[in-house]
Amino acid sequence: MSSARRGLLAVFEQGKAGFEDVVEGLEGRGMARLEAVEPAARQILADVRYGGDPMVRRYAERMDGRAPSVLLERQFDGEGAVQRLPPGVVAELKAVLGRQQRFLQRQRESEARYEEGGLLLGQRARPLRRVALLAPPGRAGRASCVLQAGVGARVAGVPDLLLVVADLDDLVLAAAHLLGVTGLVRVGGAQAVAALAFGTQSIPRADAIVGDGGLYASCAKRLVYGHVQVDGLGGPPEVLVLADSVQRAPQIAAELLGVAEQEEDALPLLLVPDVRILVAVEQELARLLAGLPRRAIAAAALERQGKALLVRQREQMLELAERIAPAQLALLVERPEDALDRLRSLGEAWWGPLSSGGGWGGVPPAGGAARFRGVPGLEPFLTRACYSRVSAASLRAQADGALALARAEGREALARGVELRRGLPEAKER
User: Fold this and answer.
1) Same domain, yes or no, for 154 and 257?
2) For residue 2, what pLDDT is reported?
3) How confident is the model at residue 183 (pLDDT cuts 50, 70, 90)?
4) Rounded CA gap, 387 and 96, in Å?
């Protein structure tokens, strides 16, 4: 695959060699990563399912480098972590959590209940009993990730929220405390997902597993779906920046580095119509990167996964963004809201010179999953049940049609059930 490298980013121009190959690779980026580790993940799931705690500890030693004596901690020093952190940091954690809560509370629909010609129809939502929240391993901004992934459980009212985290720091502990976490599962990866999907001697079975716990955990989540609810498969942090002006180069570089510094597997992507923008962005990347504490990680992400796609026409830029289906989209273009209206496959988007990613309502769908799934919001944390009650008048009005359809479909028992109910004394009420 041919490309021109202008500093940190590999550049691919539409119509030139290698362009379509790299776009196709981006379209399939999620499943390719998972398929590479699926055999190992399947083995871990089977071993933990039938081996319980000893197998959890064995894989924790192998994968995490430590095997904790206590797998589930119901008592942890969250309040102490809050006290140890600078007050300004705690205040911001609380502010972020508050904004996210208020956003999700507006999404929670009132329970539908109405009557239609004597037929009562309704829906009710109830929180799950136990949810496991995966903390991303080795990533900068883990506390923010924990808040983002877990706030829906708090808004929904989940009574038992377990944080899955192999290595702790005060920021993560404080986030857990503010979220109302009720216990810590002290292992990570596929072994933690297996324990929570099937239950072990120490770790109870969860109703849902949410958050991004790394590559093996994501693959395991895919494999245990059906035994347990999942919010999506997660993946490395990613951003696609659409930009059409050289003057926005500092902001473009800041957006790319904000994702690149999180981990070496991060995916910073740039889509522009003019090579002059690329030149200016590279200059800004070099300037900003020099002062970053995590510059080695950011540089590695940019050099390994960072790509600049050169597409001359706005319409084609939007078509390409739709194909990539980014988890996060920065719209640094003219008429950004028009561009947003044209796109359906994305997780989060923001625009304007003062804006940046917010993390509203759950882990955004990485790896191209935005093509078929949105930001999860409250759905992973709720069960929804529908109910109905038929009045006498409604039964009389519906019976002939119900009988005809049931018999057309070969469901004679159902038809006789309708006839039975139509003959009951209650069916003759006025």
Assistant:
1) no
2) 47
3) very high
4) 37
